[in-house]
Design goal:
The structure is a homodimer. Chain A is α+β, with helices and mostly antiparallel strands. Chain A folds into two domains: about 140 residues, PSTPO5379-like (3-Layer(aba) Sandwich), CATH 3.40.1640.10; about 110 residues, PSTPO5379-like domain (PSTPO5379-like fold). Chain A contains six helices and eleven strands. In chain A, α3 crosses α5. The first copy, chain A, is globular, with a radius of gyration of 18 Å. The mean pLDDT of chain A is about 95. Chains A and B meet through α5 and β8 of A and α5 and β8 of B.
């Protein structure tokens, strides 16, 4: 598929992950991915030089709730065939963020010109997968109705360091009536590869969280009367660890512009 | 086995459910059953005349969380072969309570002389089974260390009536640190035949419970700092429904003197 001239309206099947990647690859879509290819796994992406990749792999292993690794590429190989046969990580994300020495330098929609033979791609699961399972079970996620995402918070819980990678655990908060909170724990327990069961329920202060102070103002922190806040490990945790490690070069997806894979969310459920 | 003269010391294997029933059958043990035959299912028992049994069966079906039916006898048959081959409900419980028109009349250690051809036995699961699974998972149940049981409370939630059987839902409360509360929900979700997952977590008042006011002062209601109360449906719920229905005749086990079966607790786990 050739590049699509800017301004042209492209018609494509938004339920098909391969069609979505194809349009994204050709520059035809640079937006958020939340409403695209419903039912398919979307992944957080972190691309690091080989010299930093062993420690980052260890960091993910030691902190599997915030860093649920679903794929790691071979060194220099832009493919992730276990996520999708045709996938090319250099072109298949709508927008990328590039970091040098831990500092953000630019946002691009294609990293082909930045690619190097020593780069390693890490794909981490994302809570979109279990949110779909919650909705299918009849739970209400009010932040979705407000076109928002779950509120994100920095906790006073440290992750387990690995080499230069270290930092606090970040969490997402979703508020439920108590019976629904119990159901949400059951449902997310089925998804260990996308953060799994909650890490905390109830009193925010006991994990160092003030619900009015969201990380980078991300998401929705409302807890209505009669609801109980429930906290899951968050995929932004490794981004903070990378920022702290200050690798000379790093590429991530731009927030909410995720990698769309061919894996079905339901395929991640262990039960 | 013949009756054992009172005062004689009987030596038997307390880990073996059949040996326990044999001693109980001969009058050699009339105490609590909590520490006997660890690992095996113990059951709540309710024996009703046939004319009342259809409505009670329906009540159990409509309220399966507080009334998890694990066996129902044939009419007039004192056996429950699915729970143990040798089991005779007239002799195999240490102590029984007899009720007439809903009122307690006497405690006995053998109901052979009360048995009638129209009686039907119901055996309901008990939370001892999932408490064992919690302990094996490393959770702490502080009330057990104090030789007590979980605190019991009457809620403002009504059960679904069936014929004359109706009444409030009773719950047991166990307090945990939040991460352990999440684990407790996961573990008990595996045991739908013994009350299953909790019905409530957090604020007691929202289900009409005052933690300082236990039902008949049963159990331990402590919630330590940093703990969250978790509430499970309780097997005393049907006893209150029977009391409200006032059948002319009814026999139950005496509190904490349960029926010991040959089923392993682990066999009730669905996952």
């Amino acid at each position: 598929m050739s590049a699509i001239p800017p301004g042209n309206v492209v018609t494509w099947d938004r339920t098909d992950p391969r069609a979505a990647r194809c349009v994204i690859r050709s520059g035809g879509y640079t937006g958020y991915t939340a409403a695209i290819a419903a039912g398919y796994v979307q992944a957080n992406i972190c691309i690091l030089p080989r010299d930093w990749s062993a420690d980052f792999l260890l960091y993910c292993q030691r902190n599997s709730k915030p860093c649920p690794l679903i794929a790691r590429s071979d060194v220099g190989d832009p493919r992730l065939p276990t996520l999708a046969e045709d996938l090319d990580i250099r072109t298949d994300i709508p927008r990328y963020h590039i970091f040098c020495d831990g500092e953000f330098t630019e946002e691009v929609s294609d990293i082909s010109s930045h690619w190097r033979d020593d780069l390693v791609t890490f794909a981490l699961g994302c809570s979109f997968s279990f949110e779909e399972a919650m909705l299918e079970a009849g739970l209400r996620l009010k932040f979705l109705e407000r076109n928002s995402v779950a509120g994100v918070y920095v906790t006073n819980i440290d992750t387990v360091p690995a080499g230069p990678f270290r930092g606090p655990l970040l969490v997402t908060m979703r508020a439920f009536k108590p019976a629904d909170a119990i159901r949400a724990i059951q449902i997310t327990s089925r998804f260990p590869n996308v953060h799994g069961a909650p890490v905390h329920i109830g009193d925010p202060a006991s994990i160092g969280v003030d619900l009015s102070r969201r990380y980078q103002n991300v998401g929705d922190g409302e807890v209505a009367a009669g609801e109980i806040p429930v906290f899951w490990a968050c995929g932004l945790t490794p981004q903070l660890a990378v920022k702290s490690a200050k690798p000379p070069f790093c590429i991530t997806h731009a927030p909410s512009s995720m990698l769309i894979t061919d894996l079905r969310n339901a395929s991640l459920a262990v039960l």
